[in-house]
Specification:
Bound molecules: pyridoxal-5'-phosphate
Strand content: 15-25%
Helix content: 25-40%
Strand order of the largest sheet: 4-12-11-10-7-5-6
Distance between the termini: 39 Å
Structural class: alpha/beta
Largest sheet: 7 strands, mixed
Shape: globular
């Protein structure tokens, strides 16, 4: 265990001075990990420092963060611009309540988000995590229904293979099979599910691809408060890329039936799919949009729910006259200032060209996996590279192989995938794709 004193602090800052095994043992006594029993079935890997694309493990090894730490650290770790944004904000305040108070960091972030978001989104709710921003989006839709004289519109229509978070309303619209419905069926509101969007990205869209969705929407329009989906890329529900024409048609049908459209851009926002937002592939604007994950460049927990002036007016006309949500850490100044810095940093870079280059590298690097036994498909969109296997990936063994090759990834189900930081260069991308192909070769 690292003690006090300046030497120990210096060592700690550089990531030295921690005992690998000691950390793992203490962790396993006390800490829950995501989607894990107590203690976790697989011991966690202790990380003691992160800089650029690299994570330093307690045993001194270094691995590339091929996950951007759950799709968030788009500029890598300890970026000087973001470090500076945190320090500068810290000099004025770390946090103040947002009830009855405002502050420059919130105002600047809201204006910037509205400026870059698809047209028509004018108002911003700054939430403290992605799941909460989805809850807020759902509440907006429900309150809008009441405020516009349709209290009977209480259900959501979504598509299979989606993922929207782990809180109850968010869970109710996650894929019913790969999500956690079986465990929570008794308490989840029963939502409407159309088949997963078709065709794949790049394939020709035909009317039949959306027939089931259109039928459900038409049949249930009187009880639907909103349609919710992830635009063009479905993330944790299956890493699927689908045709922007499908999304365009969803927008058209929602307009036709006067149903709100919620775009969950928490995974797709800020360039990940090659466009600034997933909706930009189809040139559409949703009525409500959620962003999170990469919003603060992976530094702090923050998400946002944007909505149109019409939605805001409808919500505010409901009997409560107010949007009924207000987290303690709403609009946290440290997170808001970092988010503004991260977005400005992204926009100051040739991000489209950088992500296009990553896409090309991932395509070339992962292509050899396509021919392997045990691999169902290789697919790439923007800075997302996926190897889908025919059987579930053995997580512990695969992760060990990857770490030995200097790469950190977190496979799940039949998916071995990377979402590298945008600052990744050739060398890093080659290491990531090489390790992924090796992992696919090693499948049982
Ligand atoms: C990660 C994710 C969420 C949930 O965000 P949290 O910050 O983990 O609560 C919701 N929707 C999508 C599309 C996501 O990828």
């Amino acid at each position: 265990m690292a003690g006090g004193g300046p030497d120990a602090r210096r060592a700690r800052r550089s990531g030295r001075g921690w005992d690998h095994r000691d950390l793992v043992e203490r962790d396993r006594k006390r800490l829950w990990h995501p989607y894990a029993p107590m203690p976790a079935a697989v011991p966690p890997v202790p990380v003691v420092a992160a800089a650029g694309t690299t994570l330093t493990l307690a045993d001194g090894r270094q691995v590339i963060d091929g996950m951007s730490s759950w799709w968030a650290a788009i500029h890598g770790h300890r970026h000087p611009v973001l470090d500076e944004a945190v320090r500068t904000q810290l000099e004025s305040m770390a946090h103040v309540m947002f009830g009855g108070i405002t502050h420059p960091a919130a105002v600047e972030l809201a204006e910037l988000l509205v400026e870059i978001a698809p047209g028509g989104l004018e108002h911003v709710f700054l939430a403290d995590s992605g799941s909460v921003s989805v809850e807020v989006a759902v509440k907006m839709a429900l309150q809008y229904a009441r405020g516009t004289g349709h209290p009977e519109r209480t259900r959501l229509l979504t598509v299979a293979s989606g993922y929207h978070g782990d809180t109850l309303a968010a869970m109710s619209v996650c894929d019913p099979v790969t999500g956690m419905h079986s465990m929570f069926n008794d308490v989840l509101p029963a939502q409407l599910f159309a088949p997963a969007p078709q065709p794949r990205y790049g394939e020709t869209f035909r009317a039949q691809h959306i027939a089931d969705f259109a039928e459900l929407l038409t049949a249930h329009r009187h009880e639907i408060a909103a349609v919710i989906l992830e635009p063009v890329t479905q993330g944790a529900g299956g890493m699927r890329f689908y045709s922007p024409d499908y999304l365009g048609e969803v927008r058209r049908l929602c307009d036709e039936h006067h149903v709100l459209l919620i775009a969950d851009e928490i995974a797709t926002g800020f360039g990940r799919t090659g466009k600034l937002f997933g909706c930009d592939h189809a040139g559409i604007s949703p009525d409500i949009m959620c962003v999170g994950k990469a919003l603060t460049g992976g530094y702090l927990s923050m998400a946002a729910t944007l909505c149109t002036a019409e939605v805001a007016a409808g919500v505010s006309a409901a009997e409560s006259g107010a949007l009924m949500h207000g987290p303690t850490f709403m609009a946290n100044p440290l997170a808001a200032a970092t988010a503004t810095a991260s977005i400005r940093l992204l926009l100051s870079r040739p991000w489209e060209a950088e992500i296009a280059a990553i896409e090309e590298f991932l395509r070339a690097g992962l292509a050899p996996a396509a021919a392997l036994a045990g691999v169902a498909e290789v697919r790439v969109l923007g800075a997302i590279g996926v190897i889908e296997t025919t059987d579930p990936v053995p997580v512990a063994a695969t992760q060990e192989l990857l770490v030995d090759r200097g790469v950190w990834l977190r496979p799940f189900g039949r998916l071995l995938y990377t979402m590298p930081p945008y600052i990744s260069g050739e060398e890093e991308l080659r290491r990531i794709t090489g390790a992924m192909v090796a992992a696919a070769e090693a499948l049982p």
